[in-house]
Amino acid sequence: MTADSEPVKTGVVLTGMPGSGKSTVGRLLSEQTGLPFLDTDALIEAGESKRLAEIIADHSPEGFRAIEAAYIQSIQSAGSVISTGGSVCYSSEAMHHLAGLGTIVWLDVKPDILEQRFVDAFDRGVLIEPGSSLADLYDSRYPLYEQYAQLKIEASPLTAEEVVSLIRQQLAL
Ligand SMILES: Nc1ncnc2c1ncn2[C@@H]1O[C@H](COP(=O)(O)OP(=O)(O)O)[C@@H](O)[C@H]1O
Ligand SMILES: O=C(O)C1=C[C@@H](OP(=O)(O)O)[C@@H](O)[C@H](O)C1
Ligand SMILES: [Mg+2]
Question: What is the ipTM of this complex?
Answer without folding.
Answer: 0.98
